Amino acid sequence: MTYEFAIFDFDGTLADTAEWFMAASNVAAARFGFRQLSLEEFKGLRAMGSREIIAHMGVPMWKLPRIATFMRQEMSSQARAIQLFPGVPDMLAGLKSAGVGIAVVSSNGEAAIRKALGDTAAAVDLFECGATLFGKAQHFKRVVKFAGIEPQRILAIGDEARDIEAARKARISVGAVGWGYADPTFLKSLGPDRFFDRMDEILPAFRAAKR
């Protein structure tokens, strides 16, 4: 299977936000009354799905919208300090040159992601932002409509179990990366269509899609 359109998650896929996320999560925990975690405890979450993580941290489901809003605000205020993973600008530029469509689907706000991407944002054709924790599938479906191609020709690339779950709900192809939040072995056990251990493996998966 060759792919003609790439959908990227932001946190943990394009941007190295692990340290930021741990710090912001503990600030949110103090504010909204759920468990603060040590570095070792955060590492233990890497082999869990999102629902397991929420239960482990003692987060009431009814508080999730308020917590998500808080986290988006925190990201917006610190976006310029967020670092992209090495190779992201070249990878996105290469996809653009190959005629591959590019979208970013994230729970973060578009303005914050654009700040973090800097000049690299120009390579992105569509931003679908502000997704709820378990609401990415609807955003993926909007990307399918925008792309105007067979859903199977669209590869959604993320770093968490919920990214895989959402892509399957939207009936698009599933890609996962080994450098993000979730443990690579755990992600591989979920059976994505493509798994990327390195950033430079992404572009070749799309080279044949040049139009």
From TrEMBL:
GO biological process entries:
DNA repair
Matches recorded under SUPFAM superfamilies: HAD-like
Cellular component terms (Gene Ontology): cytosol
The superkingdom of the source organism is Bacteria
Q: Which Pfam families match?
A: HAD_2
UniProt key word Hydrolase: yes
Keywords per UniProt: Hydrolase
Key word Hydrolase present: yes
GO terms, molecular function:
phosphoglycolate phosphatase activity
Which protein is depicted? HAD hydrolase-like protein
Q: Identify the species of origin.
A: Ensifer oleiphilus
